[in-house]
Amino acid sequence: MIKGIHHASITTADIGRLTRFYCDLLGFEIVLEYAWDAGNAAADAIYDLRDSAVEMVMLRAGNACLELFKFNNPVGKAGDPQRPVNDQGYTHICLNVTDIEAEYERLKAAGMLFHCPPQHMPGLCSATYGRDPDGNIVELMEPDPAGAFAL
To answer: What is the pTM of this model?
Structure first.
C-alpha cells in the first residue's frame, strides 16, 4: 500500500553548498548524514552502478524529506542549471509556504534566482519557481485557504 511521498532526491557535485542552501535559507533540518565507499553491493544493486561511493544527507521540513547525494564514484554528468521546466524528467520540488511575498523577497535578497514574482491563481494558490545553486527548480506555493490545494 502506498502511503504517500517520503522524499525527493537531488544529486549534486557540491553537497555542502546544497545542504547550506536548503538548511540555512529554506529552513530544512538535517536528520541523517551517511556515506559509503566502493564495495557496497546492496547500494550498487539499487542504483545499477558499479563500485558506488556516496555522501548522503537527508533533510526534513514539516512532513517531507529531501535527500541530497554526492556520487564520489562513479561521478555523473553535470546537469544543465538552465534546464527548461518542460524538459522530461523530474521538474521541481514544491515548498508549502505562508506569506509567499515575504518569503520571495527574503530569498531573492539572499541571492536566489526566480523566474518571476509570485503569481496569484484565484481559487488555487499563489506560486513562483526559483532555482537552487545547482539550477534545480524550487517552487514556493501558498495555497488559497478555500481552494483545492489547501491542506
So the answer is: 0.80
Task: Work out whether the CA dihedral 62, 95, 84, 19 comes out positive or negative.
Answer: negative
**CATH hierarchy code of domain 7-73:** 3.10.180.10
Instruction: Give the length of the chain.
Output: 151
Question: What is d(CA 139, CA 127) in angstroms, rounded to the nearest whole number?
Answer: 7
Record: fold of 92-143: 2,3-Dihydroxybiphenyl 1,2-Dioxygenase; domain 1 (3.10.180)
Q: Using one digit for the tens of pLDDT, what is the confidence trace for 38-76?
A: 998 988 898 889 999 999 999 999 988 999 999 999 999
Cα separation values, 57 from 41, 65, 111, 137, Å = 20, 10, 23, 19
Confidence of residue 111 (pLDDT cuts 50, 70, 90): very high
Residue intervals of the chain classified under CATH 3.10.180.10 are 7-73, 92-143
